Amino acid sequence: MLAFLLPREEDGERARGRLGVVASRRVGGAVARARAKRRLRELYRRAPWRPAGDLVLIARRGIGEARWISLESGFRIALERAGASPPSGSIRPGSRTP
């Protein structure tokens, strides 16, 4: 998974972070792409913090079959590379699979 963070202004409605999720046809058919996007949105939803900007997550092959714990660690790594690393312990390892 890849992540990109686009900073935003800190006034009013713009202070709230937004999420964009992309899954190309290389991920699989329509059902596989939908599942990949649902899993990425769930990772974002479970994170107790929100970056001050627009976060774009790009799904890669195999994300639909990946174990939840590996998705969590991949999410954390992708955020660190994008410059939006979460506070330590904000995503609980081993949490329930959606």
Which value, in Å, is the CA radius of gyration? 13 Å
Q: In order across it, which strands form the biggest sheet?
A: 1-3-2
Count of beta strands:
3
Total tally of structural domains: 1
The main sheet comes to:
3 strands, mixed
Pick out the low-confidence regions. none
**Can you give the helix content as a percent range?**
25-40%
Distance between the termini: 18 Å
What's the tally of helices? 2
Structural class computed from helices and strand pairing: alpha+beta
- What number is the mean pLDDT? 81
Estimate the global geometry from the Cα principal axes.
globular
H and E string: EEHEH
By CATH, the topology is Ribosomal Protein S5, domain 2
CATH class: Alpha Beta
- Shape-level CATH architecture: 2-Layer Sandwich
| Residue fraction in strands | 15-25%
Question: Would you give an account of this structure?
Answer:
This protein is an alpha+beta fold and 98 residues long. It has one domain: Ribosomal Protein S5, domain 2. The chain is 33% helix and 17% strand. It has two helices and three strands; from the N terminus they run ββαβα. The protein has helices spanning 30-46, 68-82; strands spanning 2-7, 18-22, 53-58. The protein has a three-stranded mixed beta sheet. The chain starts with a strand and ends in a 16-residue tail after the last helix.
